[in-house]
């Protein structure tokens, strides 16, 4: 069995007992869309986590990084498949008892198996949140993750990073650049990934765009729950889906 070993940086260390408690809890979280934690090693200052191996690597690599043959372009169907898988994983974490707030949800933490099934990795121990209301108020809720999921949807639509300093002006921040186009069917094409070469359903793209817009609401109370997000995504491939299954 192939495995992946992650060595934690010393600045992430916390109390020995607290770390073991968190790792043991994470090890009890089992879901098809979470990367399985197989075990850990704790010796002196070394802390290692052992996970199942994901052969296709991260979503980040496929969307943004260039390999020997150029960009690893993903079809529209695969992008939706990845979004659904990631949403299922987040739903499970949010519904767990006690629930888990991911806090660092991004493309580099979404790993893909041989069939491009998405699994969330590194779902603990806790990390700093980046959603807007955390920065301004320090409050942390599941709606932090919903905002981050909205950013991910924009990355899947546009093929652009959330922050890209090589761009000019408002284009440096994906949310600021894309938001004005998300609710406009006639202008949405302006943000769509050119690597898709127009091979995507306009209605489906607009559904994802408007969903992203809801997730990115400035006020957390106006963002949907991840269960609602998942239902919307599932309906793109199964119109009869009316409730989420995690």
Automatic annotation (TrEMBL):
Domain Protein kinase: 1-237
Keywords on record: Cell membrane, Membrane
SUPFAM superfamilies in alphabetical order: Protein kinase-like (PK-like)
Primary location class: membrane
Gene Ontology molecular function terms on file: ATP binding; protein kinase activity
Domain of life: Eukaryota
GO cellular component: plasma membrane
InterPro entries: Kinase-like_dom_sf, Plant_Ser_Thr_Prot_Kinase, Prot_kinase_dom, Ser-Thr/Tyr_kinase_cat_dom, Ser/Thr_kinase_AS
Cross-referenced Pfam families: PK_Tyr_Ser-Thr (PF07714)
Subcellular localization, as worded in the UniProt entry: Cell membrane
Name of the protein in question: Protein kinase domain-containing protein
Organism annotation: Quercus rubra (Northern red oak)
């Amino acid at each position: 069995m192939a495995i992946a070993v992650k060595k934690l940086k010393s600045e992430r260390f916390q109390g020995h007992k607290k770390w073991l408690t968190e790792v043991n809890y994470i090890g009890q979280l089992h879901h098809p869309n979470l990367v399985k934690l197989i075990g850990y090693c704790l010796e002196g200052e070394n802390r290692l986590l052992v996970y199942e191996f994901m052969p296709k690597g991260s979503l980040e690599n496929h969307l943004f990084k260039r390999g020997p043959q150029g960009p690893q372009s993903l079809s529209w169907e695969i992008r939706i498949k990845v979004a659904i898988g990631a949403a299922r994983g987040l739903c499970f974490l949010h519904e767990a008892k006690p629930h888990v707030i991911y806090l660092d949800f991004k493309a580099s933490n979404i790993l893909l198996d041989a069939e491009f099934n998405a699994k969330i990795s590194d779902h603990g121990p806790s990390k700093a949140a980046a959603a807007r209301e955390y920065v301004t108020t320090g409050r942390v809720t599941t709606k932090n993750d919903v905002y981050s999921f909205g950013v991910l949807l924009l990355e899947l639509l546009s093929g652009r990073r959330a922050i890209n300093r090589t761009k000019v002006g408002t284009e440096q921040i994906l949310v600021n650049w894309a938001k004005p186009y998300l609710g406009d069917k006639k202008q949405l094409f302006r943000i769509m990934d050119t690597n898709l070469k127009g091979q995507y359903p306009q209605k489906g793209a607009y559904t994802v765009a408007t969903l992203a817009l809801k997730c990115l609401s400035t006020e957390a109370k106006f963002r949907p729950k991840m269960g609602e997000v998942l239902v919307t995504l599932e309906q793109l491939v199964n119109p009869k889906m009316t409730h989420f299954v995690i």
